[in-house]
Amino acid sequence: MKKFSWLFGFMLVAIMLVIGCSQASTPNESKLPLPNEKSTLSPTEEATIAAQVFKTKEYTIGKVPEWPLLEDVVLERYAEMEPFYAERFADKPVNYSYVLLALRAAGIQQASLQPENMKFTVYQELENYVDLDYTMDLMLDKQNGKIERVPLEGRLSLVNKDGAWLIQADDFDDAAFLKLIPQ
């Protein structure tokens, strides 16, 4: 039962957020379309929104994880991130390591993480496929009270599968993460 208490708590908070956010919106309020929602956006705009949602989820670590990482924390992170990828983790195991980068950085640095100043530009666009170059600042709010800004850049490849823009590949900033996660 203890294994599922975190899941129950997470679901309760998610439901409260959805209810609260839906009640807070007014009819005159402009609303950003959700990724993969039917809209008048171009495919590139839809892919860019999906990329922004993915990168925000990937690099937002609100609670500093214990180090070394506990198995249940790792499994929870896999479950949160797998829906963003075009291929299941079992089919493309390298995605396992991508998912843990931010979590490992938060644990080793003893900091919560938050991406800021995200910018995406189109590198290449084909039918049902978009490569986006991105830049952002990864803000580390360390437990000792110091805040550190780490500039990141990379290229994100998205593919449209059944109307949903999913991550095909992420060429992330190796050099920045080597500083955050020393080997």
TrEMBL record:
PROSITE patterns: PROKAR_LIPOPROTEIN (PS51257)
Alphabetically ordered keywords of this record: Signal
Signal peptide: 1-24
Descriptive protein name: Lipoprotein
Organism lineage: Bacteria, Bacillati, Bacillota, Bacilli, Bacillales
